[in-house]
Amino acid sequence: MLVEARLPADAPLWDESGIEWAGPVDVRLKASHAGTGEVVVRGVIEGALAQTCRRCLEPVTGSLEHAVTLVFVSSDAPGFEDDDGTHVFDPGGEFDVSNAVREELMLAVDKYVVCDPDCRGLCPTCGVNRNTDSCTCTVEEADPRWEALRALKNK
Ligand SMILES: [Zn+2]
Ligand SMILES: [Zn+2]
Prior knowledge:
Strand 2 and strand 3 form a beta hairpin. This protein has a five-stranded mixed β-sheet. About 10% of the residues are buried. Helices cover about 15% and strands about 30% of the residues. It folds into two domains: about 1-120, no CATH class; about 120-155, no CATH class. It is an alpha+beta fold. The protein binds zinc ion (2 copies).
């Protein structure tokens, strides 16, 4: 059984997932029955990520291609237990992979990206983007030796 879905970037599914998309997410999976009431789903999830550089807060786009293997347990399987992390399907209902896909991606997507490994980030004092602008803020470096001298002076 093939499970194909195109999940829109603004689908409610992604609310509070921490994942932002630049376009729809394509899910192409193949489901096969394995053992008692289990369905194994394998395939690929692809999409364009819209992320933010953690240093300078500029948008960063990246593509995601993630191979998955998900095991679903039928809710009427003998000895069924709904543990954390178990994907469940209702044998009488529609086979819905979207929640499992969401959980999988929340673990797979790196949320701490940078626009460039050499990104200089924002000035902590005035907030300009130091990749494109310069500012006259001087970074005050607290040197413990000078602090000690200063303390003596003030006595
Ligand atoms: Zn950056
Ligand atoms: Zn500055």
